[in-house]
Amino acid sequence: MPSIEISARTIAEATRLALEQMGVDEDEVLIEVLQNGDDENEALVRVSTTDPVATDTAPDEPDEAPRRTRAPFDPQAAGAEGRRILEGILDRMDVEAYVSVQHSTSTGPEGETQHSIMLYVEGLDEETVGIMIGRRGETLRSLQFLLNTLVNRHVGRWPQIVIDVGNYRQRRQESLEGLARRVAEQVRATGRPQALDPMQAYDRRIVHMALREDPTVYTESTGEGETRKITVYPKK
Fold first, then answer.
1. Which of 13, 135, 155, 222 could share a disulfide with 8, CB 3.0–4.6 Å?
2. Of 42, 69, 96, which marks where a domain is finished?
3. Model pTM above 0.70
4. CATH code of the domain containing 212
5. How many domains does the chain have?
């Protein structure tokens, strides 16, 4: 199932339903908000495993209507808007910090260009860092989802922005990449698959990416919700 469109009362609910139906997680797909929900209309989202095409028919237009061209995604504009909104949120939280933006690109599994937008929140004391990250990163993920929803309303596309606080993401990434390499070595040595403990979607993506170019092993995610985990298999 390369893509699916789901409507619901809110963007968050429509996104959740689409992810559940496809059996994937937010960080494994591209999310487009085709229509924002209001008092009269439901929200409509498209969740895709590959980058959506450049042209499409508006959700409420008949088939014979002229096709429209969507403006190309501008990651620089999305990052700037994300920084502005996040700084506003922090200010309302009475949190003194500054936000920097980092952009990078990579090639997806289908050869498509994937944009990465990182917002780094810096200048916080340890107590505030802990509060913003929350238990197992839950507060940080909620803030990240809220920010992506708000930025989408300005740029017309789900921007896939990732927030890092106190280098939490960077330290977590380095730890998971090391774990992935160690497990891959064990799988190569034993010739048997090995399952990792359940992880959040962002963490699983790091493990997948760390071993994607390894010619001796491959990874798969199985399970649902909080029990979803990665298994590393030997390549025959």
1. 13
2. 69
3. no
4. 3.30.1370.50
5. 3
CA dihedral 87, 92, 94, 98 (to 10 degrees): 0
Structural domain span for residue 179: 170-234
Q: Where are the alpha helices (DSSP H) in the chain?
A: 11-22, 75-92, 126-133, 138-155, 168-190, 201-211
CB 41, CB 11: distance < 8 Å: no
Contact (CB, 8 A) for 10 and 43: yes
b vs e for 84-120, b when ≥16 Cβ sit within 10 Å of the residue's Cβ? ebbbeebeeeebebebebeeeeeeeeeeeeebebbbb
Give residues with Cβ within 8 angstroms of 29, minimum separation 6. 19, 22, 47, 48, 49
Tens digits of per-residue pLDDT, 117-166? 899 999 889 899 999 999 878 889 889 888 988 888 888 777 788 899 98
| Boundary residue ending a domain (166, 184, 212) | 166
84, two tokens: 């502005």
Question: What is the DSSP pairing of strand 98-107 with strand 55-56?
Answer: unpaired
Whose tokens are 């929900």? That residue is 37
